[in-house]
Model the fold of this input.
Amino acid sequence: MSHYDSEYYFICYQSAENRPILAADAATADLPYSSQALPASALPLQFINGALTESNKGIFSDSPPEILFHGSDIAVKHAIYQRLAAMELPGLVPQAASYCDHKGQRHDDYYFLTFTRSLDCWDRSLSYYAPEPLSGFADLRYEVVSYQLCAQTLASIPLSQRRLFKMGATTEGWLLAHESIADILDRPGVTLVPVRDFGTVFFP
Done:
């Protein structure tokens, strides 16, 4: 295990019945918003609460969390967006988003964090994963259970370019944050999981 495994955190959600889940509306669902920068005419992205049903409307807060999860991707409120945007992180394209809550109220102060590229930096010899890649993807993606990071890969990249990134060559594409910016993303409803704990003591 390299020192990098103690420097990075997976950005995961805390499971709870009243956790709103981002789901794209019909128009946004047809767009490649999770991997491409879209023209201004396509923004803001439109999301609803995918966890909402007729019977559970009363469990959700009228004040949605500062960070909303869409699978392993996230949308963040404006204050978080400003801090991340100031870092000019490579491959990160924050895209304006609007979230419609359980009462039909729109919240227009979100930004969906689109990563136009990922960083494949998990160590094949030390991580635990299914040896055969999954089919159906344009690139090679593996089902990874637990991770150890590749020290050689990370050492070759300046820290300023890897403070926040999307893990590459995996089916899940979890986001990882360096310890130097972890406080920005440490918000209610978020669990920052040390690399060494993911898939060993913490299971998403």
Observations:
- The chain has a mean pLDDT of 96.
